[in-house]
Amino acid sequence: MSDTTELERLDHVIKNFAPEVADIYYIREDESEEQQIKTGRLHENRILGIILKYFLEGKPKVTTGEVEQEYKNYFKEIARSTISTYLNMLKKESTLYKERDGRIVYYIFYKNPPLNIHPFWFTRIFCIVPAYFVRAYYFSDLFLDAEQTILDKIEAEKVEMVLENYKFLIGLIILQTLKNRSSKCVLCQFSKEETYNSMEEGLEEAIKDRSDVLPEALLKILADYGELSIFGGIDLEKENVKQQLVDNILILEEEYRKDLEFQIMVSKRRIERRLSQLEGKKLDQDTEPLE
What we know:
mainly alpha, Arc Repressor Mutant, subunit A, 2 domains, two-stranded antiparallel sheet, globular
């Protein structure tokens, strides 16, 4: 899947692991955008969220072109000149500062984003959508590379036994990441609260269906993996973190193998029921008489 986009790879994972949320996990609805109110603040919020995404990836300096490209990836496209205008406004407000390297102009946070503040206040300044999706992309690649990763780590005859549990753990981390995103979007001043409440409920249900018989200690670890570092989660940009993550997940797989096997067995029946219920709802909607 090397020619696919990050979102397409994530979508492939979701359809494989949690098909019942495949139609809701990516939704983004902003009241301000629909009603064309507070759009200036909305653009600033999103631009700062994009710069935050780069910052969390270990890239504190960004260009107008990079912001423009990422804006198109996550939001309704706006003109490059509009992005430049807001970047310069943020510079005038001392939220950002400029640094030149020849003809290239970089924008940098004047002060690093705060750590461990309440998400309500954080989302007043930053859109967190890009940062959470990048985290979900990171784990979706681990999910898709799982078989080769395990083949490189353990004996071939043990791969089948370990693979399902290993992917199940990563799938739970992805769902937790997406749920964390929706819980922050609910708090955003620009968001359509009803939409994100519904999304959060759907993701919570999907997580519960796949975790309710797992030990709390394991769930706490997975929750930390699914949270941004600014809210207390692990920092994915630390040196050798990917290797450590893989090793840690394999350790968890071995330690909680019996719990995972039982959970997976229970979950499969639940997921079949959920999908059947969703299909029934769709059929009901399709057969509703026209007024």
